[in-house]
Amino acid sequence: MLRVVESSKQEVRDSSRSAQVEARLRHQVNSLRDERDKALTQNTDLVRKLSLHEEELRLTKAKLSRVQQEKLSLERDSRVAISLARSLDNSNSNDINYYKRKVSALSDEVQSAYEKIRQLEGKKQRNSY
Asked: How would residue 82 be classed by pLDDT, with cut points 50, 70 and 90?
C-alpha cells in the first residue's frame, strides 16, 4: 500500500508539474500572440506612413520638375527680353542720331528763312521811305 501511495504521490507531482509547465507555456503563447499583434499593427502603421511619404515625394518631384521647367522658360524669356531691349536701344540710338541731324538741318533752314525774312523786311522798309 505504501508503494501505491508513493506511486500516486509521484503521479500527482508529475501531474502538478505538467500543469505548471502547461500554464507557463500558455502564458508564453499568449504573450507571443500579443507581441505579434502589436508588431502587425506597427507594421500596418509604418506601411501606411511609408505610402504617404512616397506619395508626398512623388508630388514634390512633380512640383520640382514644373518649377525647373518654369525656371528655364523664365531664363529663356529673360534672355529674349534683354536681347530685344539691346536691339531697341541700338535702334533708338540710331533714330535719335537721325532726328538730331534732321532737327539740326531744319534749324539751319529755319535760321536761313528768318534771315531771308529779315532781309525782305529790310528791303521793304527801305523801299517804303
From this structure: very high
